[in-house]
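Q: What would this complex look like in 3D?
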Amino acid sequence: MKIPYQSLRKFTKSVFLKIGCSPQDAEKATDVLLAADLRGIDSHGVARLSSYVRLWKSGRINSAPSISIVHETPSTAVIDGGAGLGLVVAPKAMAIAIEKAQQVGTGWVAVNNSNHYGIAGYHAMQALEHDMIGITMTNASPLVVPTFSKEKMLGTNPIAVAFPAGEQEPFIADLATTTAAYGKLEILQRKNSPAPIGWIQDDEGNPTQDCAAISDGGGLLPLGSDREHGSHKGYCLGAMVDIFSAVLSGANYGPWVPPYVPFLGKKEGFVGNGIGHFFGAMRIDAFRPKKEFKTHMDRWIECFRNAKPIDPEIKVQIPGDQEREYEKVRLIGGIPIVDSVLEDLKHLAEHFDIEPEWGSNMPSDASTLEI
Amino acid sequence: MKIPYQSLRKFTKSVFLKIGCSPQDAEKATDVLLAADLRGIDSHGVARLSSYVRLWKSGRINSAPSISIVHETPSTAVIDGGAGLGLVVAPKAMAIAIEKAQQVGTGWVAVNNSNHYGIAGYHAMQALEHDMIGITMTNASPLVVPTFSKEKMLGTNPIAVAFPAGEQEPFIADLATTTAAYGKLEILQRKNSPAPIGWIQDDEGNPTQDCAAISDGGGLLPLGSDREHGSHKGYCLGAMVDIFSAVLSGANYGPWVPPYVPFLGKKEGFVGNGIGHFFGAMRIDAFRPKKEFKTHMDRWIECFRNAKPIDPEIKVQIPGDQEREYEKVRLIGGIPIVDSVLEDLKHLAEHFDIEPEWGSNMPSDASTLEI
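A: Here is my prediction, written as structure tokens for the whole assembly.
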């Protein structure tokens, strides 16, 4: 089933309003969440709406948080997210980073006491319209094993960086520091398909193709898969994200990160508040004239796009290309929603007494568009 | 053969003095270069000394560079390295980043018109004694293929980050954004051993174990090895390093980076000056009190060190552990030098009429120490 973007947006906003978000916060949270659905990262969009509601019900998410600056210098700040939705806390933190970059060239904001913030790429992209480079990372539920370990210690801990370009579309990197994002594993699980060797290990630390191993004592592997192929580098990157996001901000780190996925137990105690994020904004003209930078970014992008392909049918991509393709198609054709997510949305509609409008104004060509 | 650290240091400094470095610059360049030998990254130490001399002879390295700030804001600067040794330019750039961090919390310096700067980790570590986080990256000779391409477009483009700790030793990450560093391939080549599948591809883009493929139209693979195992993420990380180091600074990027390895031809033209680096320093107390941060870093490190191992004999490591082990052994036992490097050093000694002192004061236990 495909739901028109605007209908899904309206519904999602209603849910955020029902749990007590201000109209402004509900609008922002919806914008962040739907950006994932639009850009083809289905695991991070409305598929998670019911989880946010679940966390709000259990008291872990405050829908009217008091977000405050704990400490700051001209180029840095630490923010207490007030246990708010990460979808709301993150845009505020990024706005502070951007403001600081306006003043002194760069701005860096570490956030504690927050929750899952949606797709990292969205937040990095906020810098682009200010002719800045945007950077963000976040820690997350411990699902990932360090190299040589059979204990889940890190989240998929993504890094996102957005660089503005001139005539070309911007370079937008957004990557989990694991071989495969958890969302990809969820998709395979739904299909009952095996995972490629190198994505996960079982409870004894052996390679496995069984997706269920992840909730049965196994773990996701860091980018690199095994020691011989550089998994210590993926572990290292995930660790860096954890330290920037949480040790620097005062959030929980490593195995203490409060889990988002229901099957994970919580390690006893806390070493900080909530989960942590990290944001950066760098003004291009704090380094070189904007026009010069953009001209060279265009040249960089063209040069890499035209790198000799192995298969003439498969061209080299620029980070962000694939998501832009999805966005183009889905803005017109609607957002594909799998049955289990549709069930979730129906339950939310009933629970909050919201009348979803999908079905009524589905564009006639929606079902013919595939990506 | 093992050469005592101090003898090798004295010899190396003599060579830098002979090519015209000031005593201060020769001392610094030696310190950076020998740090690689001490820390077990043999490919980046005195094994490269003759290459620096070669580049100096061909006019690409200026041993008495005029290093200048081209542009700055309170938290940023762009430095023209004056075609100097990267080993000399980089410490100066890092010092400026640290100075800016003292003033406004963080400092970020992009460098153009430089050359190979040794091990990235050395430069990041300079921040530690100031209770700062140190960050650096650099672009390098195009040896790496983007995902889906058979054209070498990127360097091994390392990222290094150093976090101070309290009682524990610091967390020092230093990683090439490829599956394996080029130095590891060189070691296999010397032994005539095959490379693991996933490190390199041949001139047609097929996986290969033949190390020689790298100089025969093939390329190093980005971290992740292939698309299914996340090579697009390694490509993305390498690309980010290239953009921070060169598009932001005004250096050459992508295939235009002037090659350091002799077998690579130079792509016609230039898109900037020399090669590029990027440096960052972040004052811990610009975020939270130093003591608090260090207490939590200690806890982070202890917790990860004690993560359940798969094999009880192989414990989880903290980035920097392995290099510290090498350093302990080599400071006492001397630096192992393979025959081809020893030949190189002998040639340099003859060429510059330097009397190397090794052999005379070799500690008697040197040959019994192995790592």
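A: To summarize the key features: Chain A touches chain B through 83 residues (CB under 8 Å). Residues 360-371 of chain A have pLDDT under 50 and may be disordered.
Q: Very helpful, thank you.
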